[in-house]
């Protein structure tokens, strides 16, 4: 299990974020600004996904998690929801071979039982095909909600206790091992495009110590340069995890003297 809680143990911090999580927002407004139907923005959004995945591979990011459809997005007009489902099918059909050729492992997290059989089958196939790839783990959050995630993890923990016939300790680690993304470290950098500054029920548990970066750029316009700006901002942050700046300085001085 890769997941370790940042509140239990201070994680190692690298210059480039190991894990970037993005709320890809602003597709509708991108299209409206151009007098196009909202869904045209979703189509262009897929192109942006392609370029950001490539940029992450180039920058050596290990995990990229993209919020594609929230558990609340079912509230949208039926036409838009149907369009998004079709787009998901097309993207799975067209992009998986390329991802695989580039050594990318694909995972999809969320309550997948709400999707039709075809989508569920495409997801299973894509995950199996790419399971052994190690260059980048691309996770698509679909019908995902942070509260759903904590709830389903808790449910599994309770079920494990029932199966074991004895109580299971409720700790950050035991909850963490049942979270949908237990295979990944917590996100280092959280990006939201499209100007809104909210979490919208994304990775509530896992964002505890992520660095937040908001940009007005609409998702279809987000590209490698925009990603590099976000990473640049991240690089300037001091990630203290509850400690003081002086403690961090001492730590790095000690590390320097050890390496001399
Ligand atoms: C994000 O763009 C994509 C999804 C939620 C599927 P939006 O569709 O939310 O775009 P805006 O926020 O309305 O511009
Ligand atoms: C969040 O975007 C979900 C995704 C990007 C998939 P929304 O545009 O749906 O978020 P809210 O509802 O405006 O906060
Ligand atoms: Mg939106």
TrEMBL record:
GO cellular component, one term: cytosol
UniProt name for this protein: Isoprenyl transferase
Family assignment from sequence similarity: Belongs to the UPP synthase family.
GO biological process: polyprenol biosynthetic process
Lineage: Bacteria, Pseudomonadati, Pseudomonadota, Betaproteobacteria, Burkholderiales
Molecular functions per Gene Ontology: ditrans,polycis-undecaprenyl-diphosphate synthase [(2E,6E)-farnesyl-diphosphate specific] activity; magnesium ion binding
Biological function: Catalyzes the condensation of isopentenyl diphosphate (IPP) with allylic pyrophosphates generating different type of terpenoids.
Quaternary structure (record): Homodimer.
Cofactor requirements of the protein: Mg(2+)
Enzyme class, spelled out: transferase
Keyword Transcription regulation listed: no
EC number: 2.5.1.-
Protein residues bound to Mg(2+): 25, 211
Cofactor binding, note field: Binds 2 magnesium ions per subunit.
Alphabetic keyword roster: Magnesium, Metal-binding, Transferase
Record: residues binding substrate: 26-30, 38, 42, 70-72, 74, 76, 192, 198-200
Active site: 25, 73
């Amino acid at each position: 299990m890769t997941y370790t809680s940042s509140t239990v143990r201070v994680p190692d911090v690298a210059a480039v974020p190991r894990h970037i999580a993005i709320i890809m927002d602003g597709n509708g407004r991108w299209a409206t600004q151009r007098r196009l139907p909202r869904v045209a923005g979703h189509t262009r959004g897929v192109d942006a996904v392609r370029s950001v995945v490539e940029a992450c591979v180039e920058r050596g990011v290990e995990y990229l998690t993209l919020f594609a459809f929230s558990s609340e997005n079912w509230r949208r007009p039926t036409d838009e929801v149907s369009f998004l489902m079709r787009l998901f099918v097309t993207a799975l059909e067209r992009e998986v071979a390329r991802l695989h050729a580039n050594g990318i492992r694909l995972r999809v997290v969320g309550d997948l039982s709400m999707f039709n059989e075809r989508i569920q089958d495409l997801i299973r196939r894509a995950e199996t095909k790419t399971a052994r790839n190690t260059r980048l783990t691309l996770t698509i959050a679909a019908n995902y909600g942070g509260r759903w995630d904590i709830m389903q993890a808790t449910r599994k923990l309770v079920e494990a206790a029932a199966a074991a016939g004895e109580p299971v300790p409720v700790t950050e680690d035991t909850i963490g091992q049942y979270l949908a993304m237990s295979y990944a470290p917590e996100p280092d950098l959280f990006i939201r495009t499209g100007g809104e500054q909210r979490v919208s029920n994304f990775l509530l548990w896992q964002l505890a110590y992520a660095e937040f970066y908001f940009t007005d750029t609409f998702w279809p316009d987000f590209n490698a340069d925009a990603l590099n700006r976000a990473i640049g901002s991240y690089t300037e942050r001091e990630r203290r995890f509850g400690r003081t700046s002086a403690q961090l300085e001492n730590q790095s001085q000690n590390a320097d003297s050890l390496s001399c």
